[in-house]
Amino acid sequence: MSKDQIAYHTKRNSLKNSQSDDDDDMESQQSSLSYRERRREAHTQAEQKRRDAIKKGYDTLQELVPTCQQPDVSGYKLSKATVLQKSIDYIQYLQQQKKKQEDERNALRKEVIALRIMQTNYEQIVKAQQLQPGHTETPVSDEVKFSVFQAIMDQLFITFSSISVSNFSELSAGVFSWLEEYCKPQTLKDTVYQVLRRHNSQMRG
DNA sequence: TACAAGGCTGCGTGAGGTGC
DNA sequence: GCACCTCACGCAGCCTTGTA
């Protein structure tokens, strides 16, 4: 507030309250300031304190909200109404983001559960096959294991070599589609059987 | 370019509500 | 009943924008 404003208000208020103050002064001649005057000054200070708190709140809000941190397009300080509106918009944006992330998290949780079920099923299949009559545990040399592993990897590499590696996005997209197409449990199972059959025939031949 | 109009802000103050 | 808090109001100053 400018000095002119202060002078104006001081004069205005003194005129406004002169009558009642005179009455108060007549009632309490012991104090230099009337009760009403003291009340008015205390209230003025309290109101200033309240406005400071509100202003501080707006300033803090402006610091916290990213869209309020730069001045508006005209280059001027954002008005309080604008700060409020931008804060509302930002909170709504955050709420949308939160919901989106919750949906993603739920989808991933379902996927984890599905994969665990699949894992359990495959473990049961393996156990059942091991318990079948005629199934014997014969020791397999490391050389044979490596040979089989190499054959499986070679088979997979043939399919993998069709993926484009010209840039990262194409590569990552290609890897995902390759995993979905060639690394399905049934596909891998077929590949392993195929390699093992070939390996057996070579051993017999 | 001068001027009017309108918006924003800060100020002091009265009135009403609330807690002790 | 009193002290304190909050809200609403009127006011002035500053600034931008539109217009003659």
From TrEMBL:
<keyword id="KW-0804">Transcription</keyword>
<keyword id="KW-0805">Transcription regulation</keyword>
<keyword id="KW-0539">Nucleus</keyword>
<comment type="subunit">
    <text>Efficient DNA binding requires dimerization with another bHLH protein. Binds DNA as a heterodimer with MAD1, MAD4, MNT, WBSCR14 and MLXIP. Can also bind DNA as a homodimer.</text>
</comment>
<protein>
    <recommendedName>
        <fullName>Max-like protein X</fullName>
    </recommendedName>
</protein>
<comment type="function">
    <text>Transcription regulator. Forms a sequence-specific DNA-binding protein complex with MAD1, MAD4, MNT, WBSCR14 and MLXIP which recognizes the core sequence 5'-CACGTG-3'. The TCFL4-MAD1, TCFL4-MAD4, TCFL4-WBSCR14 complexes are transcriptional repressors. Plays a role in transcriptional activation of glycolytic target genes. Involved in glucose-responsive gene regulation.</text>
</comment>
<dbReference type="GO" id="GO:0005737">
    <property type="term" value="C:cytoplasm"/>
</dbReference>
<dbReference type="InterPro" id="IPR052207">
    <property type="entry name" value="Max-like/E-box_TFs"/>
</dbReference>
<keyword id="KW-0963">Cytoplasm</keyword>
<feature type="compositionally biased region" description="Basic and acidic residues">
    <location>
        <begin position="35"/>
        <end position="51"/>
    </location>
</feature>
<feature type="coiled-coil region">
    <location>
        <begin position="91"/>
        <end position="118"/>
    </location>
</feature>
<dbReference type="GO" id="GO:0140297">
    <property type="term" value="F:DNA-binding transcription factor binding"/>
</dbReference>
<keyword id="KW-0678">Repressor</keyword>
<dbReference type="GO" id="GO:0003677">
    <property type="term" value="F:DNA binding"/>
</dbReference>
<dbReference type="GO" id="GO:0045944">
    <property type="term" value="P:positive regulation of transcription by RNA polymerase II"/>
</dbReference>
<keyword id="KW-0238">DNA-binding</keyword>
<feature type="region of interest" description="Disordered">
    <location>
        <begin position="1"/>
        <end position="51"/>
    </location>
</feature>
<keyword id="KW-0010">Activator</keyword>
<keyword id="KW-0175">Coiled coil</keyword>
<feature type="domain" description="BHLH">
    <location>
        <begin position="38"/>
        <end position="94"/>
    </location>
</feature>
<dbReference type="InterPro" id="IPR011598">
    <property type="entry name" value="bHLH_dom"/>
</dbReference>
<dbReference type="GO" id="GO:0005654">
    <property type="term" value="C:nucleoplasm"/>
</dbReference>
<keyword id="KW-0597">Phosphoprotein</keyword>
<dbReference type="InterPro" id="IPR036638">
    <property type="entry name" value="HLH_DNA-bd_sf"/>
</dbReference>
<dbReference type="Pfam" id="PF00010">
    <property type="entry name" value="HLH"/>
</dbReference>
